[in-house]
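name: query_chain
kind: protein
chains: 1
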Amino acid sequence: MPRKPKATESSEEVNPGLEDSSASSAEKQSTETTKVDQSSPKAKASKKPAKASGGKRSTAQKKSVPEKSSTPDVEASGESLDIERQDDISKASDNKLKKRHQGLLDRYRNEIIPAMSQEFSYKNRMQVPKLVKVILNMGLGEALTNPKAMDAASTDIESITGQKPVIRRAKKSVANFKVREGMPIGIAVTLRSYRMYDFVERLIHAVLPRVRDFRGVSRTAFDGSGNYSLGIKEQTVFPEIDYNKIDKIRGLQVNIVTTAKTDQEAFKLLELVGLPFSREN
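structure:
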């Protein structure tokens, strides 16, 4: 019997080894491809959890998000209401003042202007003198030794006029009075417009009748330029002052400034306004 060639046997033996090597190389390639796929961004994106359907938040996410508080809106609305109330109160007070003074202004326009123009033969209504301002002064020489006197006098003037007074200081140093330049020696208040008319009405109808042994104001207290000065010895004649709350009786000076050019015009104006002058001797 003839023998089979060995080459065929060797080829058969080599083939399994080649198959094993090819299989191992294929496995390596597959592992490398899997690693590359895992490191790629597409693979990372595939690992992320899918969003809820419709792009809506879940109930857990809604609970985690803090709700916006409505307190700032409420506070802003409350502040706006307070501002509106304050504006309404100020408007109401201004309307009350206007109504209170309207009688004096109407009387000036309807009665005083025709009477003055007839007596002094004015050609124009603008030539008729009128009230410009009222100034209240209070000297406080005692403030040099008693600092509390300035505060007490300021509260009295503020309650009388409704305005905070201005502190007047010395312009010169006087050794005899122990006064140095810049030291506070008095207070003053300037009233204009509706406050001026209100004060003049109260002065004529409520204050002067309370003066003890009152027989009219002086007829000669003019300065030659149409301005009138009136002295009040006690601040308690004003109804706004409580006698039990004052520390000391103090006097004050009232100056009425007008646009009159002569004392006769100013006298006639104040007489028509209602200022009670004393009788002629």
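note: The longest strand covers residues 131-139.
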